């Protein structure tokens, strides 16, 4: 079974391009957290509370912002444009545990992951997230 068999999504790339970058980030937040949780369950023997504590180190806005900045030069021009659009999207949500700039970059990272996922570019999502293994939080 492939992921597209499990989670149906019928929009094409043009339709995804018409969505708000905040919608991409909404999906990307979930996809990224799923990858992180799965990675931690696969590579550790932590109990659920400790898994949660460890996952926060990866999914908090500051970590996402730093990770995006560390991989930025490896992104394609199209991916950089996605990041730019998302970073510049007017978001009226005020961050609780980060500054506005970190929050904007974290939103841009989540939007990139969500955009690629919605465009069914699963291998590229995996390639980007695989870079976490060499990233220092």
The largest sheet is: none
**CATH level-1 class:** Mainly Alpha
Oligomer: single chain
Approximately how much beta-strand content do the residues carry?
A: under 5%
What sequence of helices (H) and strands (E) makes up the elements? Answer: HHHHHHHH
CATH H level: which superfamily? Ribonuclease III domain
Average residue pLDDT: 90
Q: Are there runs of 5+ residues with pLDDT below 50, and where? A: none
The total tally of domains equals: 1
Structural class: mainly alpha
Polypeptide structure, described:
Helices cover 69% and strands 0% of the residues. The protein is mostly helical and 137 residues long. It has one domain (14-134): Ribonuclease III domain (Ribonuclease iii, N-terminal Endonuclease Domain, Chain A, Orthogonal Bundle), CATH 1.10.1520.10. Helix 6 crosses helix 7 (100-118). The longest helix is centred in the first third of the chain and has 23 residues, at 21-43.
Structural topology:
Layout: H1 3-6, H2 13-17, H3 21-43, H4 48-59, H5 61-71, H6 77-87, H7 100-118, H8 122-130
Helix pairs in contact: 3-4, 3-7, 5-7, 6-7
Quick take:
This protein is 69% helix and 0% strand. With 137 residues, it is an all-alpha fold.
